[in-house]
Amino acid sequence: MKSKWVILALIILMYLPVSIDATILHVAVPTLASELATKSNQLLWIIDIYSLVMAGMLLPMGALGDRVGFKKLVIIGLTIFGLASLFAALSTSAMMLIMARALLAIGAAMILPATLSGIRKTFEDEKERAMALGIWTTIGVSGAALGPLIGGYLLSHFHWGVVFLINIPLVLITIIGVMIVIPKQVENTKQQWPLGKAIFLTIAVLLIVYGLKSSLKLDGELRYSCAIGILGITLLTLFIKKELKSAAPMIDFHLFKIKALVIGTIIAMVVMVTLVGFELLVTQELQLVYHFTPLKAGIFIAPLMLSSCIGGSIAGWLSSRVSFRILATAGIGISSLCFLGLASVDFITQTYWVWGLFILLGLSLDIALLSSTSAIMSAVSSEQSSAAGAIEGIAYELGAGFGVIIFGLMISIIYSYHIDLPTGLSQPMQQEAKSSITQAFYVASQLDVTSLSEQLISAAKLAFSKAHQVILISAGSLLLLLTLFIWQSTPSKINHH
Fold first, then answer.
1. Which residues form a coiled coil (predicted)?
2. Per-residue pLDDT at 1
3. What's the CA gap between 145 and 168, in Å, rounded?
4. Topology of domain 1-188, per CATH?
5. What is the pTM of this model?
6. CA-to-CA distance for 374 and 193, rounded, in angstroms?
7. Mean pLDDT throughout 84-100?
8. Secondary structure of the chain in the HEC alphabet?
9. CB atoms within 10 A of CB 101
10. Over the stretch 145-202, which tens digit does the pLDDT of each residue have?
11. What are the structural domain ranges in the chain?
12. Is pLDDT at 355 greater than 90 in this prediction?
């Protein structure tokens, strides 16, 4: 019995850095922009490449675990994760850091399915397995919630590279523990490993994302950007067509004929888009507009992240008492009102109102997320549960990746549109200052005239605050429309298929 819980402790130890790394860089955006001289587009890639690559690699790495055993998979995954952490910490350019984050995602995509496989194989008793899975889920949510706090503390005291270096001792301890404690696994060489499909899917998604990001840079390369985006869409369409015809598909797209699963997947993606995108927006605004330190910014948003940790237990209690339709509608509906409320309050003079809305937002989004899981898993048979779970996992990671993209691009576009540049700037300086608030600050630091520098900084802050307001009103309005869609299209009871 004791060895089971030792194995669970190892699983928690290996899963913690994976979940923390998903959000730890959110408070580091201004620091990275300054230290690595990154542009806004590069910053978005640094943050969201992790989720996007993980989304493409989760399924094939799960299949690889079935083939070689989760012990071997997790040792390989931890080794890659540790080396990638060192590579990231030593990065001297944005491109190096983007590559390191992509490598981190590959290691994480090995660790994540290995942790679930380890729980499934170690805990045969259903009650013990449910308890272990509950602890696993809590660690995942808590790690993501603590990411900004840990990142903020480290950035306030050390060089930014330390946010990655802290992974290395954890990785070394876990590898030694796994080698000593975990028994040798039975290998299944007949298990297919769809690595080629995963790479194809990841390339398609990254091309679409690249086309979308670069088309909105307003630098005259629109045809080139559109061509890349169209190529990505074409590859994705080919992938879906091949998967529909395949006898052993990597993703079972036939499951999307089930209405409740589609609605659950939409909810999961939307919740992750809004939660991750909003966190990115707020942490930037707190540091760039209000001059918060990274640690103070992490503490300020702690009510949002910590309340999202306990929303799951409330959702679990409610799910046995109210229908999925009511639970999902309430979760999305309340979150939409929170966004509209946050668009109209002042973060400095009305701090307690902001924190109250943060808590309500975290709870409502997590309730919506748990209701989506319930819908997805209840809508399929037990034989289809693994495939449905894989779709949900991909939805989570894509939602997190697209949250950074959508909110990041909205910040850039609205900021560029609203900034009222002072007279006296050269044409190249105007273009640079319009691209992002961090670039405007850089231009201001190069100016000899103090009054002109102060005017530019003031204009940049005002434009960013305007972007904050427009984005939150837009997000709240879209969530309100989604609330109506869920209420209208969701059956009061989900039937098993």
1. none
2. 44
3. 21
4. Growth Hormone; Chain: A; (1.20.1250)
5. 0.80
6. 29
7. 92
8. CHHHHHHHHHHHHHHHHHHHHCCCCHHHHHHHHHHCCCCHHHHHHHHHHHHHHHHHHHHHHHHHHHHHCHHHHHHHHHHHHHHHHHHHHCCCCHHHHHHHHHHHHHHHHHHHHHHHHHHHHHCCCHHHHHHHHHHHHHHHHHHHHHHHHHHHHHHHHCCCCHHHHCHHHHHHHHHHHHHHHCCCCCCCCCCCCCHHHHHHHHHHHHHHHHHHHHHCCCCCCHHHHHHHHHHHHHHHHHHHHHHHHCCCCCCCHHHHHCHHHHHHHHHHHHHHHHHHHHHHHHHHHHHHCCCCCHHHHHHHCHHHHHHHHHHHHHHHHHHCCCCHHHHHHHHHHHHHHHHHHHCCCCCCCCHHHHHHHHHHHHHHHHHHHHHHHHHHHHCCCHHHHHHHHHHHHHHHHHHHHHHHHHHHHHHHHHHHHHCCCCCCCCHHHHHHHHHCHHHHHHHHHHCCCHHHHHHHHHHHHHHHHHHHHHHHHHHHHHHHHHHHHHHHHCCCCCCCC
9. 25
10. 778 888 888 888 888 889 899 899 989 999 998 888 887 766 666 656 677 888 888 8
11. 1-188, 195-249, 259-491
12. yes
Domain at 259-491: CATH architecture: Up-down Bundle (1.20)
1-47: per-residue pLDDT in tens?
A: 457 888 888 888 888 888 888 778 878 878 887 788 777 678 878 88
Give pLDDT tens digits for 54-67: 888 877 887 777 77
- Owner of token pair 């679409």: 208
Over residues 235-241, mean pLDDT: 89
Q: Which amino acid is at 267?
A: I
